[in-house]
Sequence to fold (181 residues):
Amino acid sequence: MFISQELRKKSIAEYVLYMWQVEDLIRAYGCSLSRIKNEYVSRFADYTDEQREELTDWYGDLIRMINQEGKREKGHLQINDIVVKDMTDLHLQLLDSTKFPFYNAEYYKVLPFIVELRNKGGKETGEIETCLNALYGTMMLRLQKREIGPETLHAVKEITTFIGMLSDYYIKDRTEGLEFD
Fold:
């Protein structure tokens, strides 16, 4: 919760990836609040009792949402899907505008990777979600200490740059507002 609040302010892409990880963590604990509280939250020794209670409440709210939305096995919460949709909407505005040539150039640099990823199985997934899926999948492979090939690493590096740009524009649009054509 505390991490998500900070990430949401500084990098919306990192926030989404973190929230997807939280969804998976909740599933790993069988969507059980008592297990999360006893086996996970209790390990945060540097948190005060109040902070741990607040964190437990936050997990409880997410578990309720997962149950209400039927996402116990897979899928993302609506609150996270809305953020991805907002990122996608901004992405389309940036592409339609002549005021963001560097963003357009980065997009066309990444587009072949997006097309390749979508052809491998995510045809119905939007471009931004495809990029986020690639980043999340790579993060999971790294956590599992699995080998990642050089071509994948190159694609992920390019996608990271592109999504980082979008994330920066997202924060700027929310804090200062962007001027489109």
Notes: The radius of gyration is 18 Å. The CA atoms of residues 37 and 43 lie 9 Å apart.
